[in-house]
């Protein structure tokens, strides 16, 4: 049954297509009387029931004959079931009775998959059949094509047409004959029709490969031999470009899609002219004119030359606004990035036209109006007009009324009280309607609901505009949907870092209630690790409506670092630092570092190791070993020692550290007259055994170039657990980063310390406080801010302070955000004090300056120049550069 329906559909579709032709025909411009035809039902001989073809086959033959120009007697006028049982006399009578010139009858025989069509056609003016026809086919699905072939044979006889015996193609060299014949619909055995050949001519020409095509027909005994004589287009040998100054030849050739060796095609040449024009117009050369010249060569080849007249660059002369009253042209132009040509256009590119940028300006203008109360403002499509060497832009604006904020309410499914939900909304503090604030409040409410597990809460702000009062009442309608649980956490992209190292930073866990706040914190924790270039978070639908899948895609970056730095000072002269470290050893999150510092007065070698999660709990442990040789001008100190340390996460972002260190320092006095008194009695070996504890809060979003967060610490150190040295030291440090405007960041830093000597030991000068250098007061030399005291010889010498305070303020400006390049303006102030001195803020030393910081592929780089604002005798205020650099592997 299915096969039957398919065949009926195919035959019906084929039949309908044929019927669309007119019934009138003309031969050589003379109208003739259309012949009338009767098509009798075909007899069917088959093992299965396909009797429906008895009428379908005549229907298709009849429709084809109508297309050819015959008149077919309607089937319902002739009701004969078995025409082959009729005599020729009876068949002729049927034709005459219906006024037909011809009668067609036949049968279909099917054996297996093969079938055959046997048919006859009688001219009613004669008693004998004039023709017998036989066609066969494979598979009943091919029946429509076979029936059409049979009908074509009838047409040839009735309309006295000639057959096509053969179809030939000549003159082609590069284009294959089979490729051309696929475009020709006229086939051997078809009727010779001028109309069909005309269509074939168009089809072959549309291939685009030929300059000339001629069709010749030659009569033979078998029928017409049709020959398509083609003349191929030339092959492109060279493409030359002339007259271009703005673009190099290569830039223009890269924009072309026509290449040497291809067939020369006029349509493709025109298309490539448009490509070149687009290239110029993108650079605002809208008056560019491009012509082409073809030079014919031997062997059917040709050279193509594009001749370019670039014209002058067109810039924007005027941007005008129509329909505005609330704001001036100047105020609106400040909102746009597209600008008019200015005096400094050669430097700033003002007046450059960019259609995509102009589209974005429409969005910016719309946002500007909607963020200033004009909730119904409409910005029209910019009208761009080119006049000679200038561009004129007109933007139509329908401002509408300015709306104030009316009542703000929340309705729907409330997870907290109405007051608790309204309180954090910023729109309540806005005097005018502001779409950005409204959008941010929606996100804020979404986060509140997501923290309660409603990850799919739908929050819709409904605006009720009171035109008379020019107010908008806002109601946030909330549909909380179902509470959502985390079904699965999928981590991908980590080829080195182990899953465990990533998962221990997550604040969300599988099978727990979804929390947006904890999820954001998890991403921030991963970013703080500084193992990844990028951390992408996606949430996917789980196995049910109340399940969610969290997918974390991380992009790892090198965590091994080779860093070096250097500088110049009157103390160190030229100094250098190099270190090799791995912050993610074997993908376990362990830190191993070997560091060397070499200078005119200092040589220091350090080896350190840290395990951040000992026993898989947030307990860090590590050790340090060092060898430190230091020349303090008046004495040398050679230290060897080490220490162990522990740290534990006691609260969010907060760690408590405990460490023990042991140092053996060998002191050699170089200039006893200039040496501090606290050092003179320490010549030889001195042992320092100390314990210290640090409480640190660090919520910075990044370790280098952070944009927000804090870094605070308090440290207490006690030396005197045996050994020769005994002191107690306290230091405290506060640091806060906060985002400002336009992506800039502010940083405020304060630090102070106090040290006292104990009765049972010594306090060496190198454990006291000095300021000056890259990490304290920039512009001053290293350890340049100190106290002065007279020694036993009556000489004035530099000594460290018992107290110090230091304040730093920085303004960080992103210069190239993607590259991590940041500019910095800074102000530093601070001083050191004796044990008996009070800290007086009017005695603080001051410096200011600027610099650059770059998180380069080689690692962090700092270059900063500080100027002393209150220079004393012997100090320079001309500025002092310092730098540090690093590299990664």
TrEMBL record:
Residues 1-21 form the signal peptide. Keywords: Cell outer membrane, Membrane, Repeat, Signal, Transmembrane, Transmembrane beta strand. It holds the Pfam family Omp85. Residues 162-233, 234-311, 314-400, 403-481, 484-557 form the POTRA domain. It is found in: Membrane. InterPro entries: Bac_surfAg_D15 (IPR000184), BamA/TamA_POTRA (IPR010827), D15-like (IPR039910), OM_assembly_BamA (IPR023707), POTRA (IPR034746). PROSITE patterns: POTRA. This is Outer membrane protein assembly factor BamA. The gene is yaeT2.
């Amino acid at each position: 049954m299915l096969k039957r329906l398919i065949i009926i559909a195919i035959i019906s579709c084929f039949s309908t297509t044929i019927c669309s032709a007119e019934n009138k025909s003309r031969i050589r411009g003379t109208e003739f009387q259309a012949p009338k035809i009767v098509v009798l039902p075909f007899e069917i001989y088959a093992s299965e029931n396909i009797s429906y073809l008895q009428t379908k086959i005549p229907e298709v033959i009849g429709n084809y004959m109508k297309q050819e120009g015959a008149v077919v007697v309607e089937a319902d006028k002739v009701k004969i079931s078995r025409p082959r049982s009729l005599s020729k006399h009876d068949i002729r009578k049927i034709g005459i009775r219906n006024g037909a010139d011809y009668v067609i009858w036949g049968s279909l025989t099917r054996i297996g998959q093969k079938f055959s069509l046997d048919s006859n056609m009688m001219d009613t003016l004669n008693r004998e059949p004039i023709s017998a026809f036989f066609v066969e086919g494979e598979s009943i699905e091919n029946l429509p094509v076979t029936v059409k072939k049979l009908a074509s044979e009838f047409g040839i006889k009735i309309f006295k047409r000639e057959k096509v015996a053969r179809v030939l193609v000549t003159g082609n060299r590069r284009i294959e004959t089979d490729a051309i014949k696929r475009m020709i619909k006229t086939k051997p055995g078809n009727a010779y029709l001028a109309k069909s050949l005309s269509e074939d001519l168009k089809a072959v020409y549309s291939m685009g490969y030929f300059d000339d095509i001629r069709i010749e027909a030659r009569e033979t005994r078998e029928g017409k031999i049709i020959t398509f004589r083609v003349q191929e287009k030339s092959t492109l040998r060279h493409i030359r470009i002339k007259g271009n100054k703005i673009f190099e030849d290569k830039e223009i050739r890269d924009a072309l899609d026509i290449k040497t060796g291809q067939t020369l095609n006029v349509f493709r040449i025109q298309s490539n002219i448009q490509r070149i024009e687009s290239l110029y117009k993108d650079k605002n050369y809208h008056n560019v004119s491009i012509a082409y010249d073809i030079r014919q060569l031997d062997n059917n080849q040709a050279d193509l030359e594009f001749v370019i007249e670039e014209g002058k660059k067109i810039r924007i002369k005027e941007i005008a606004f129509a329909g505005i009253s609330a704001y001036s042209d100047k105020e609106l132009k400040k909102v746009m990035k597209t600008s008019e040509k200015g005096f400094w256009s050669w430097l700033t590119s003002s007046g450059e036209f960019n259609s995509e940028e102009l589209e974005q300006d429409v969005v910016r203008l719309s946002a500007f109006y909607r963020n200033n109360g004009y909730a119904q403002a409409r910005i029209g499509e910019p009208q761009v007009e080119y006049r000679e060497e200038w561009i004129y832009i007109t933007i139509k604006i329908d401002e509408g009324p300015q709306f104030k904020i009316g009542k703000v309410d929340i309705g729907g499914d409330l997870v907290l009280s109405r007051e608790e939900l309204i309180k954090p909304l910023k729109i309540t503090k806005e005097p005018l309607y502001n779409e950005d604030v409204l959008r941010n409040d929606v996100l804020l409410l979404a986060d509140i609901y997501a923290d309660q597990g409603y990850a799919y809460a739908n929050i819709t702000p409904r605006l009720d505009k009171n035109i008379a009062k020019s107010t908008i009442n806002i109601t946030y309608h909330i549909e909380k949907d179902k509470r959502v649980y985390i079904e699965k956490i999928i981590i991908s992209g980590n080829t080195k870092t182990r899953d465990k190292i990533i998962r221990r930073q997550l604040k969300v866990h599988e099978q727990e209630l979804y929390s947006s706040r904890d999820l954001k914190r998890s991403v921030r924790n991963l970013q703080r690790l500084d193992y990844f270039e990028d951390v992408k978070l996606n949430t996917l639908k789980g196995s049910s409506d109340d399940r969610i899948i969290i997918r974390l895609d991380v992009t790892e970056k090198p965590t091994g670092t080779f860093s070096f730095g250097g500088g110049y000072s009157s103390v160190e002269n030229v100094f250098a630092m190099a270190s090799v470290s791995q912050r993610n050893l074997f993908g376990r999150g362990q830190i191993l570092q070997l560091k060397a510092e070499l200078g005119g007065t200092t040589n220091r070698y350090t080896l350190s190791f840290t395990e951040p999660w000992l026993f898989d709990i947030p307990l860090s442990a590590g050790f340090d070993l060092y060898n430190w040789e230091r020349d303090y001008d008046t004495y040398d100190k050679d230290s060897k020692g080490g220490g162990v340390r522990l740290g534990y996460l006691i609260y969010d972002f907060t760690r408590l550290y405990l460490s023990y260190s042991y140092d053996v320092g060998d002191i050699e006095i170089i200039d006893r007259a200039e040496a501090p008194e606290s050092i003179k009695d320490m010549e030889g070996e001195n042992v320092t055994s100390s314990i210290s504890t640090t409480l640190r809060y660090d919520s910075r979003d990044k370790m280098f170039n952070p944009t927000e967060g804090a870094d605070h610490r308090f440290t207490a150190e006690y030396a005197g657990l045996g050994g020769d040295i005994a002191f107690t030291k306290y230091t405290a440090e506060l640091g806060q980063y906060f985002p400002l405007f336009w992506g800039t960041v502010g940083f405020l830093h304060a630090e102070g310390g106090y040290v006292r000597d104990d009765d049972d030991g010594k306090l060496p000068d190198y454990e006291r406080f000095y300021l000056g250098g890259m990490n304290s007061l920039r512009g001053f030399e290293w350890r340049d801010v100190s106290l002065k005291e007279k020694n036993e010889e009556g000489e004035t010498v530099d000594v460290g302070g018992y107290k110090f305070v230091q304040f730093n303020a920085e303004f960080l400006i992103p210069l190239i955000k993607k590259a991590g390049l940041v500019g910095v303006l800074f102000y530093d102030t601070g001083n050191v004090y004796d044990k008996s001195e009070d800290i007086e803020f009017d005695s603080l030393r001051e410096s200011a300056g600027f610099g650059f910081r770059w998180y380069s592929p080689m690692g962090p780089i700092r270059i900063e120049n500080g100027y002393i604002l209150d220079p004393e005798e012997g100090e320079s205020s001309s500025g002092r550069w310092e730098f540090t650099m690093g590299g990664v592997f």
